[in-house]
Amino acid sequence: LAFAAQAWSHPSKLGLESPLLPMFVRLRDIVGASGASASERLAAAIGRLPAFSMEGAGLSAQFLLAWPETMEAAPVLLLDALDEVPDQHRLEVMQWLGTVREQVPRLRLVVSTRSLDLLRGSCFEAAPRVRLQAPTHELAVRIAAAYLAQGPSDLVEKLETAGLTDITSTPLATALAATVYAERGVLPPHRP
Questions:
Q1: Gap between the Cα atoms of 40 and 47, Å rounded
Q2: Single pTM value for the model
């Protein structure tokens, strides 16, 4: 989501020459989305996001195609969590992504997954890849400091001592751990 905000409001921070119009889609929502065209199915999947789940607040496929033209910005689909798509539906979703790529060549696609192996044999196999690294100890402390008035380094050290380094493996998990620690004064439980 941070990428989305920067792509629109501060594209130069990402090395972009002009703004991109980001659209976030959870790939698992593509599985149950219906529509005759790729854009109709995409509109249905975006409509499943909490921000659009209010009655009567759906998106039309025409809106999704017209919006980038109106905003004079190239669209970018942020397709989240390929690894969370059930195995029996993953091929279908990958084929759908290939169709989207063919039907809307101007559309940029960013696919997130915990396993790059899932991209083998797909239209994304040769695409550029970025592997996110876990925050360093120092960065984890800085993230925790944004949520804790006192003792952010103590929290990170306690997590590391307790063998809960998976909690500090992402900025989001670190922020959530700091929030829980600030409210309850105890370490978050380990999630297997």
A1: 10
A2: 0.64
